[in-house]
Design goal:
Helices cover 83% and strands 0% of the residues. It has seven helices and no strands. The longest helix is centred in the middle third of the chain and has 31 residues.
Amino acid sequence: MRKAIIVICGLVMLLCGLGGLLFPVFGYLWAREWATFIFTLSFPFFPVFYLPFTGWLLVTGGGLVACRQWAWYSVQTFWVFLLCVGVLLLVGFNLLSDVMTSLVDAGGNFRGVGNIILGVLLVLMPVGGLVFFNRARRLFTVPVEENPWQRWSAAVEEEQSEWLGQG
């Protein structure tokens, strides 16, 4: 069951990474004016953060599907990153909701719903991911095989000790 969940997580990460790479391309092809405006406003964000993050999702998703040992470290780093972002967004959301009283008052219980959504998506999910992948770590370790030359040399030493009368 854990193996299936790991493969599903890997496929979801692959799809998110692929979608993250295709989203700007399709946005530029069909909504060129909006896309160029957004890319112009967010110039340092896009090449410095967005593209490496989508590349990281692609590589980590592929590693999870293949159950590579380095993918375990990468996905643990991903969950810690999401947890830190979630805590910062929760704090920022609560600080800014006091400033934006018109938005909070107009939406009814907007602050409580926002806290619940951010808390579940960006705090509980990463904590659950950290716990799950910590328990599934043994699926990512490569069993160390015994060197056949080592067995041969031990057998030769045993024969030599018997032959010399030391055994």
